[in-house]
Amino acid sequence: MSELILLLISTALVNNVVLIKFLGLCPSMGVSKSMDSALGMGMATTFVITLAAGASWMLEHWLLVPYELGFLRILTFILVIAAVVQFTEMFVKKTSPGLYRSLGIYLPLITTNCAVLGVALLNVQQGFSFFKSLAYGFGSALGFTLVLMIFAGLRERIALARVPVAFNGTPIAFITISLLALAFMGFSGLNI
Amino acid sequence: MIAAILSLTILGAALGLILGIAGRFLAVESNPFVDEVEALLPGTNCGQCGFPGCSGAAAAIAAGSAPASCCPPGGKTTAVAIAEKMGLALDLAAVADTGPKLATIAEDLCIGCCRCIKNCPTDAILGAPKQIHNVLKEACTGCSACIDHCPTEALVMQPVPITLQHWVMPKPLAA
Amino acid sequence: MGLMEKLFGRDWGIHPDDHKRPAADAVTRTMPVPERLFVSLSQHLGAPARPVVLVGQKVRKGERLADPQGAVSAAIHAPTSGTITAIGEIPAPHPSGLPVLAITLEADGLDAWADLEGLNDPFLLPPAEISKKVAEAGVVGLGGATFPAALKLSLSEKAKVTTLVMNGGECEPYLSCDDRLMRDSAAAIVDGIGLMLHATGATQALVGIEDNKPEAIAAMQQAAAAQPHIRICPVPARYPMGSEKQLVQELTGHEIPADGRPGDVGVVVHNVGTAWAVHQAIRFGRPLVARLITVNGGCVAQPGNIMVPLGTLVEEVLAFAGGLNSAPARLVMGGPMMGMSLPQARVPVVKGSSGILALSAAEVAERTEEPCIRCATCVGACPMGLLPLDMARHIQANDLKGAVKTGLKDCIACGCCAYVCPAHIPLVQYFSHAKGELSAQEREKLRQESNRKLAQSRAQRLEREAREKAEAAARRKAERAAQAAATPESQAPSNLPAPQGATA
User: Fold this and answer.
1) Which one of B8, B15, B86 has the shortest CB-CB distance to A101?
2) pLDDT score for B32
3) C265: left (phi over 0), alpha (psi -120 to 50) or beta
């Protein structure tokens, strides 16, 4: 049990998927203008990553390894991820039309969010058990949501500040997220 | 080779089936925004947006084929309200809001033809045949639906005059 | 609330130099009626009054010139006897310099009162009668907000308030008209308080007076000595102690909730000047036609308090006060913190004018604005416990919604934040701008709402007309059919041409 919790913390903070591994940068820049849509995006991605991590473990251990189909790994994983994203999109459209509107193109783009595929592939690489895979996926997604929300909060403040014209908009956002990445590097000192 | 083809086919078919079933259960019957957007529009059916009435404009906005700022008489307020409801980003600079306007009748030009009265969506014009017409300021929405129907160009749109009650302190210039 | 606040209380507000003396100690002067008066029709909160006199009509002092219009409004009376020469637009005493409708009254020099009737024993009348008489006299809140006093009295009677808080705080620097009024006419004010107690049904009155006015406190204590339910309560001098919410909390200990009214804690607040006006209205039947005004500021030769007929031009008041030493850097109506900067001196005195200040350049101390360094001095000064720096940030970025979330609606525009700001940021101006924008949006929303209703009723009307037309056509058809059936066939054709022949 404690191992799972440690795995959660280390994936969410120490090896943060956005700021340390630099995966999933597209939505972190795109959907971080307001806290509300950042939270919605975080939740949708959490759902997709966790489900994809579980499904990819099953595919790996019950299909790809027994039949020696390792070369199909990326193809099958993407297939599963795309299906999960499609399902999520339908679900969000039905339950929260407002969120569906505000996420816009970024919702179907979760399919190509490299964090999702990256987590699934890393799972395989590290040879985790099923529950560890789930924890790894969930922890990564948690880290993604955390960074997205912190960054959205910062951007909401920056929107009020008087930024020099040359830096206004995306440039100051990049500077901010790099500073945030520096701050997250501090977690690597955590001895766990 | 056969195993690869088979497994991918089965996987694809299974996922397709699951999505198909989910699509049935999670189907969204109609666009839920149409009614809500229509409630935000003025409801005067003046036709300035180019759509057939306010319900037509609401359908177009909800479908995404018209911008939130497509209602000229609604102005900035309506555009912001719709954009918020739809979760859309709104470029306020694109809203051509020159401030509220009112129709006024030049009394020396009005011939009392009653044509404008029939076209006013809010019954804001008073008058009778061969009598000079007048616009009720409180009821005029500034939609300018009447302007084109005046044969003598007695009707003009004029900005609503600023009074003490409507005056807004100017925003200080940032240093 | 932190431990420091628990032990020492929250430190709100500011302590500006009060500049009240020597004006407060100078003997009150009464200004003679000038040749021409410009009586504004918007001297109160709410809709402008509707004139009931005609150009050329002769009026006597105290005769009604305009009726209240709408729910929140007040009547306006002639400040002197004379002839109405015009009803038209003049520049308003307002920073915008926009025009306002006013009645021009040419004084005949007699200053003859109309036949007025006072009441000897108003306490026999029901409270509603008192409110009615106050309304007839056109009394409004003389503290500056100019809310119709009668409306406040009758509303608080319905709301069952228990405490009447009299505002004699006069926390604004430079102003001393309430101070002077309490020193000169304490008995009249106490009588007015008694009348207001009767009108509101409140059981006790608390008169809050800042402790920098010892003479006024002494005079009021002496006048109210015989009436135990009117208590004179000295309060520490601190700006903005004269603000409704702060004074009520200081005197009763109850905090008025955000976007609430004093009535929510069983309190109604009136200015001491209003009590004087109520006394005049009830005892002598005299409407509000003159008020005490503080003329002060570095450029005024003889600062002091002057009883001025309403409608007198500011430049005439300044001339009567002894003229100006030098050209003022800024002309202000009201106090220096919340008053209105006047674009010119040819504007009339209105019911809400508590002071006319001609400030010198040194007093105005125009300073250049610098960037906000987030020192949060304004947060400590804000009497409402808001975050002025954050609110201003939101407003700068045109984010009104964010500003409202930060508490814009609770801002009382007292100006403490701008006063203490080391970067000289015009914070209050941001807030006034945002509040104006908000109410403009609100108005726009109401307009849209009414537009929708109008469009709907038109649609209904068209439908009804179409239906009626169809029904009438059907009825005619039925009648004709019935007629055709009832009459012999030979008569029917001979009937039809007859009307046609008649019209031809």
Assistant:
1) B86
2) 67
3) alpha
Q: Residue with structure tokens 């955590």? A: A190
Average pLDDT, chain A: 89
* Residues 6 or more apart whose Cβ sits within 8 Å of residue C464: none
* pLDDT of C492 higher than 50: no
C454 to B77: CB separation less than 8 angstroms, yes or no: no
Identify the three-state secondary structure at position A24. coil
Q: Kindly indicate the confidence band of residue C499, based on its pLDDT and cuts at 50, 70 and 90.
A: very low
Nearest-CB residue to C94 (from B123, B124, B164): B164
d(CA C61, CA C46): 25
Contact check, Cβ <8 Å, B141/C451: yes
A102 near B CB under 8 A: yes
Q: Within an 8 Å CB–CB cutoff, is residue B2 touching chain A?
A: no
Going along chain B from its start, the domains and CATH numbers come out as 33-94 (1.10.15.40), 101-162 (3.30.70.20)
In the predicted model, what is the mean pLDDT of residues C186-215? 94
Instruction: Give residue C388's pLDDT band: very low, low, confident or very high (50, 70, 90).
Output: very high
Chain A interface includes B22 (CB < 8 A): yes
Residues of C in contact with A160 (CB under 8 A): 393-394, 396-397, 399, 402
Instruction: Give yes or no for a contact between A29 and A180, defined as CB atoms under 8 angstroms apart.
Output: no
Burial class (CB in 10 A: 0-12, 13-18, 19+), B2: exposed
Contact between residue C334 and residue C295 where contact means Cβ atoms under 8 Å apart: no
Q: How far apart are CA C304 and CA C355, in angstroms?
A: 10
Q: What is the pLDDT of residue C503?
A: 41
Q: How far apart are CA A57 and CA A45, in angstroms?
A: 18
Cis? peptide before C22, omega within 30° of 0: yes
Q: In this predicted model, what pLDDT tens digit does every residue of C356-365 receive, in sequence order?
A: 999 999 988 8
Domains of chain C: 117-285 (3.40.50.11540), 377-435 (no CATH)
Taking residues C453-457, report their average pLDDT.
Answer: 86
Q: What does the pLDDT read at residue C504?
A: 36
Is the predicted pLDDT of residue B139 greater than 80, yes or no?
yes
Instruction: List CB contacts of C413: < 8 A, sequence separation 6 or more.
Output: C338, C428, C431, C432, C435
Q: Rounded to whole angstroms, what are the CA distances from C9 to A73, A164, B43, C5, C209? A: 68, 42, 54, 5, 20
Bridge partners, residue C209, by sequence: C168, C234
Q: What percent of chain B has pLDDT over 90?
A: 6
Residue A91's pLDDT is: 86
Q: How far from chain centre, in Å, is Cα C415?
A: 19
Mean pLDDT of C134-150: 91
Which pTM value belongs to this model? 0.84
Q: Under an 8 A CB cutoff, do B33 and A75 touch?
A: no
Position A118 pLDDT exceeds 70:
yes
If you average pLDDT over residues B118-132, what whole number do you get? Answer: 88
Rounded-to-integer distance, Cα C371 and Cα C57, Å = 58
Which ipTM was obtained for this model? Answer: 0.76
pLDDT given at position C487: 76
CB under 8 A, 24+ apart: contacts of B107-115: B107/B132, B107/B154, B109/B152, B109/B153, B109/B154, B110/B152, B110/B154, B111/B151, B111/B152, B111/B154, B113/B151, B115/B149, B115/B150, B115/B151
CA gap C270, C167 in Å, rounded: 6
Place of tokens 């039949």: A67
Q: Which two tokens stand for residue C448?
A: 């849209």
Burial class (CB in 10 A: 0-12, 13-18, 19+), C410: middle
Instruction: Give the span between the Cα atoms of A144 and A24, in whole angstroms.
Output: 8
Length of chain C: 504
Pick from B3, B32, B174: which is nearest to A69 by CB?
A: B3
Q: What residues in A contact B86, CB-CB < 8 Å?
A: 98, 101
Interface contact flag, C399 A161, Cβ < 8 Å = no
